[in-house]
């Protein structure tokens, strides 16, 4: 079972709304310092957040003429990481700045998120898991709500915690959700998708009160894809609601969770403050659970995963291990998930 960080995959760097024109923002991803900046035309670039001259983070600098300027000596770097100017050079000095480069990363901006490819240079990007798309929404539509929180745990514990179907009555015990007093047996059909698996579209359980607020007869499907993206798509007639959650490993003890809520249900926008509160409470309850979990994990206990209720967690580890092994062995990825019906109480 592979428990390290997956590389040669796309991770969320930050929401689009957090990177303004002519601004730079620092992030740590897979223990690596990365700086994102947006030029005057709106294009986003990403590179290693360390100046090769004296080591200061480039994110402390500013964007000048669509280049990122080091705050220490004014060296400038374009979006490819190439040095375009060294102000201290005299005209007759023959050092060519263009030969100095900072590691740059491919970036992809879509549907309110900025993704960064963390992996080998010149890797074939067509062979990696692609960021999931929220179907039916125009490219220019902004998310209705955006949340970014830090879970103080390894990404594996964050992923498993968010996909766990049995913790709801205890971690999310609320008047608007459910408690152990309303637990019912659930039976859901799952099947494989590219680099992941999906809970096939179904009607939500009768004790899932929040779904009822959407009106009509909602149906939902939940999809998980590598490296760690969970998308819930709720359909109410022709209307859609998406809960889009992407996890980014910061380091071995921290995971950044980025969640979007996107909908085209006009009347729901009138209750946006209530939906916002629900989202914050829900994520906060999950964060509280994994934070407390770390107290026990300090003692390196043996852990277990049981059949059905924890099968999705087992699939996650299998998918992750298969992707890692396929890259190491230079062979095609083979999805280990088969169509399966799972049963649990929650």
Estimated radius of gyration: 22 Å
Structure class = alpha+beta
- Termini separation (Å)? 28 Å
Low-confidence spans: pLDDT under 50, at least 5 residues?
A: none
Q: Return the string of H and E elements.
A: EEEEEEEEEEEEHHEEHEEEEHHE
| Number of distinct helices | 5
The CATH topology of the largest domain, please?
A: Naphthalene 1,2-dioxygenase Alpha Subunit, Chain A, domain 1
Give me the count of strands. Answer: 19
Q: Strand arrangement, largest sheet?
A: 12-18-17-16-15-14-13-19
Number of domains: 2
How much of the sequence lies in strands comes to 25-35%
CATH architecture of the largest domain: Alpha-Beta Complex
**Helix coverage percent:** 10-25%
Overall body shape: globular
For the record, what CATH class of the largest domain applies? Alpha Beta
Can you put this structure into words, describing what you see?
By secondary structure, this protein is an alpha+beta fold. It has 2 domains: 9-127, Rieske [2Fe-2S] iron-sulphur domain (Rieske Iron-sulfur Protein, 3-layer Sandwich), CATH 2.102.10.10; 145-345, Naphthalene 1,2-dioxygenase Alpha Subunit, Chain A, domain 1 (Alpha-Beta Complex). The protein has 5 helices and 19 strands. The strands form 4 sheets. Strands 12-18-17-16-15-14-13-19 form an 8-stranded antiparallel beta sheet, with helices on one face. The chain has a 4-stranded antiparallel beta sheet with strand order 2-3-4-9, with no helix packed on it. It has a 4-stranded antiparallel beta sheet with strand order 5-6-7-8, with no helix packed on it. Helix 1 crosses helix 4 and helix 1 crosses helix 5. It is globular and about 80 Å long. The two termini are 28 Å apart. The mean pLDDT is 92.
């Amino acid at each position: 079972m592979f428990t390290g960080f997956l590389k040669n995959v796309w991770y969320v760097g930050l929401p689009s709304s957090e990177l303004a024109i002519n601004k730079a923002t620092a992030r740590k991803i897979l223990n690596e310092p990365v700086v994102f900046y947006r030029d005057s035309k709106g294009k986003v670039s990403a590179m290693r957040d360390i100046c090769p001259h004296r080591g200061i983070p480039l994110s402390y600098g500013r964007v000048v003429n669509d280049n990122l300027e080091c705050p220490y000596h004014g060296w400038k770097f374009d979006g490819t990481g190439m040095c375009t100017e060294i102000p201290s050079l005299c005209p007759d000095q023959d050092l060519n700045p263009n030969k100095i480069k900072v590691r740059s990363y491919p970036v992809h901006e879509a549907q309110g998120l900025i993704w960064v490819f963390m992996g080998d240079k010149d890797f074939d990007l067509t062979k990696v898991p692609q960021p999931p798309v929220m179907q039916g929404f125009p490219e220019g539509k902004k998310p209705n709500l955006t949340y970014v929180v830090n879970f103080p745990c390894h990404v594996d514990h964050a992923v498993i915690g968010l996909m766990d179907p049995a913790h709801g009555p205890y971690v999310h015990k609320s008047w608007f959700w459910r408690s152990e007093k309303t637990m019912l047996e659930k039976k859901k059909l799952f099947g494989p998708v590219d680099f992941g698996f999906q809970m096939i579209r179904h009607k939500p359980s009768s004790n899932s009160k929040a779904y009822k607020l959407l009106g009509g007869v909602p149906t939902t499907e939940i999809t998980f894809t590598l490296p760690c993206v969970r998308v819930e798509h709720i359909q109410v007639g022709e209307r859609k609601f998406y809960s889009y959650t992407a996890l980014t490993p910061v380091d071995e003890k921290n995971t950044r969770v980025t969640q979007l809520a996107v909908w085209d249900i006009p009347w729901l926008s009138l209750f946006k403050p209530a939906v916002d509160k629900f989202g914050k409470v829900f994520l906060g309850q999950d964060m509280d659970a994994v934070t407390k979990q770390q107290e026990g994990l300090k003692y390196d206990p043996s852990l277990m995963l049981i059949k059905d209720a924890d099968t999705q967690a087992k699939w996650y580890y299998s998918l992750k291990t298969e992707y890692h092994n396929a890259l190491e062995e230079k062979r095609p990825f083979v999805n280990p998930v088969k169509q399966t019906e799972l049963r649990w109480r929650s």
